[in-house]
Every structure is written in C-alpha cells, then in structure tokens.
Amino acid sequence: MSIEAWSNWNCPHCKNANRFEEVYSYNGTNISNLKTLCNTSIQNSYNHIVICRCTSCWKIIILINDQMIYPLWAQRNSAPQEVPYEIAQDFNEACLVESLSSKAASALWRRCLQNIFHEQGIKKKDLNQEIEEAIKTLPSHLSDAIDAIRNIWNFSAHPMKYTQTWDIVEVEEWETEWVLDTLEWLFDFYYVAPAKLKSKRDTLNIKLTAAWKPNLK
After folding, report:
1. pLDDT tens profile 23-69
2. Alpha-carbon span 88 to 80, nearest angstrom
3. What dihedral angle (degrees, nearest 10) is formed by the CA atoms of 150, 147, 119, 174?
C-alpha cells in the first residue's frame, strides 16, 4: 500500500475518502524528530516512515515501508453477520494480524476451521481427521478446496504438530489467500446461503398464508 501525505485515499479509521496531511506535531510530540529518530535507530530494518492524519476525523495513520502499523486493519471484509460469533471473531482477528504475522493468523484460521466443523457436529481426534470427515459431506468444489488446505498445512509431514489448532507454522502468501477463500466459501455454504433461503421461504409463507394456501415446509 503506497500512502503519502497530501494525497487522497480511504481513511482506515472513518472509512471515508479524504485528503491526508503530513503531521508535524501530535499531543506535544514533534513528529519530524520522531521520524528522524526511528529512521536512525532502526535503519537496518526500516527506511521509510509515513505519518499523516485524515482531514475528516483527524486521526493519525502510521506506515513503515508502506505497511500500515497503526491502526491495524484488514484488507478483507469481516465475516458475514450470519457466522457464529466465536468463529467470526477468530476469522476477523486473523485477517487483522495477517500483515504483521502470517504464522499467528494461520493458527487462528485453523481454530476457525475446526470450530466450523465442531459447530456442524464433526469432532475427531485432530483437525486432520475432521477435514477427512467433512470432505465426505461437502460438495466436490468445497471438499477439493479443504483437501488442498491439508497440503498447505502439510499434516502428513508433521501429524503431531496439528493436534492443537494454535500451533505456529510457516505460511506462504499464496497459501494464505487459499485458506481465506476457502473459509469464506464455507461461511457461504454453512451460514449465509441457508439464512438467505430461510428468509425467502418465510417471506413466501407469509404470502401463502394471506392467500389461504399451505406453507412451504
């Protein structure tokens, strides 16, 4: 993400498209000195710091090497409202920390996936076995997607590491994309699509009742 002062972009705080200005002082702190200090003390790791603020909500945004470190924000949308709270919370938190630690995000995604299975009544010795069980009941496109996750997380190579979903494992960027897409597909299959169907059925039943006709079951 390339963000510079005196440019227009969407604010991660207020979500509005606004002009952003460079910050020279904030709550008594000289930002220019802070930038100089940071660039000097951590120059081996970072070489470009952007500190600016939104001209709409006046909140600060800080980026290091084009990576936003404040505020934390997710590039993906939050889990749909139909998803159970604990599952949605793990998914949203994983997306939030993805840019800072793909390992931590991966642990949360695994717990999210396992909780989806548990909520569907699939409980086995470990996540690998639960994936095997889930594959039997899902459409082919979803079973293929979940089966690919087993290769991404390499269960066969390290079977003991995955008895706990919060194990820390190396994750590549393309692997992250696949896991996130798969979770969103599962959200739609298990929660969003059934909720939409129920809403349409309820609406139709109201019309059928008004017409003195039998309701859909």
Report:
1. 654 444 445 555 554 544 444 454 567 778 888 888 888 877 667 77
2. 8
3. 60
Q: How far is CA 126 from the centre of its chain?
A: 23
Mean pLDDT of 149-159: 60
Task: Please compute Rg for the chain using Cα positions.
Answer: 23
- Model pTM greater than 0.70? no
DSSP string, the chain: ----TT-EEE-TTT--EEEEEE-SEETTEEHHHHHHHHHHHTTTT---EEEEEETTT--EEEEETTEEEES---SSPPPPTTS-HHHHHHHHHHHHHTTT-HHHHHHHHHHHHHHHHHHTT---SSHHHHHHHHHTTS-HHHHHHHHHHHHHHTTTT-GGGGSSTT------HHHHHHHHHHHHHHHIIIIIHHHHHHHHHHHHHHHHHHTT-PPP-
